[in-house]
Write a structure and sequence with these properties.
This protein has a domain at 6-26 and 103-201: 3-Layer(aba) Sandwich (Ribosomal Protein L4, Chain: A), CATH 3.40.1370. Helix 5 (131-144) runs parallel beside helix 6 (155-161). The protein is α/β, with parallel strands linked by helices. The chain has helices at 6-11, 21-24, 30-43, 104-120, 131-144, 155-161, 177-182, 193-201, and strands at 124-127, 148-151, 167-170, 185-189. The protein has a four-stranded parallel sheet. It contains eight helices and four strands; from the N terminus they run H-H-H-H-E-H-E-H-E-H-E-H.
């Protein structure tokens, strides 16, 4: 896991509010995170693969040879599944459903686990969403040379960083474990810390 450079950590301000240990100090649970990621990846999968069966393959209308007298096995079409160029038996028809369900508590817990892990490994920083500091964050991120996740509800900040290569932007209501696992460094807006904590702890 790549650490954010020292130059970056000095320029970014620390969080201004007290952190909820239920979100930021959760022990790492590899099995839970893997289970939740498996569901997310399955739900992103599209079952659009399609192959042709023997009735859809062109040709094969003429009987290859007569029924009797040739010494060969009887056959009615050159598009039989056992022939090269024939149709596929029990193939995909474009209607495969890969979607799975995951318990909401498990999904929230996995997000808390990854936020805690990123914070412990010094791969997560807090910043104030101001025009001046947003530009600093953009400059720092562009120098990191790795995938970076910015968590904020500010549309202005999104416009500031969206065209920087390697940056992913997500709001406090949509961030999940997959976002945190897919990026090596995380920036969290101070303004959304309380909102994020309420969402992940269900106001508890």
């Amino acid at each position: 896991m790549a650490e954010i450079k020292k130059k970056t950590t000095k320029e970014v301000k620390k969080v201004e509010t007290k952190l909820n240990p239920k979100v930021w100090e959760v022990a790492y649970n590899e099995d839970l995170v893997a289970q939740v990621l498996y569901v997310y990846n399955s739900n992103a999968r599209k079952g659009t693969a399609v192959v042709k069966d023997r009735s859809e393959v062109s040709g094969g209308g003429r009987k290859p040879w007569k029924q009797k007298g040739t010494g060969r096995a009887r056959v009615g079409s050159s598009r039989s599944p056992i022939w090269i160029g024939g149709g596929v038996t029990f193939g995909n028809v474009g209607e495969k459903n890969w979607s799975k369900k995951v318990n909401k508590k498990m999904a929230r817990k996995a997000t808390c686990i990854m936020l805690s892990a990123r914070l412990r490994n010094k791969a997560l920083e807090f910043f104030n969403e101001t025009s001046k500091e947003a530009k600093k964050v953009r400059e720092d991120i562009s120098k990191l040379g790795s995938s970076v996740l910015v968590i904020s509800d500010s549309e202005e900040l999104q416009k500031t960083v969206r065209n920087v290569k390697g940056i992913s932007f997500v709001t406090s209501q949509k961030v999940n474990a997959k976002h945190l696992v897919s990026n090596q460094a995380v920036y969290v807006d101070n303004k959304i810390v309380e909102t994020l904590e309420k969402r992940l702890t269900n106001d508890k």
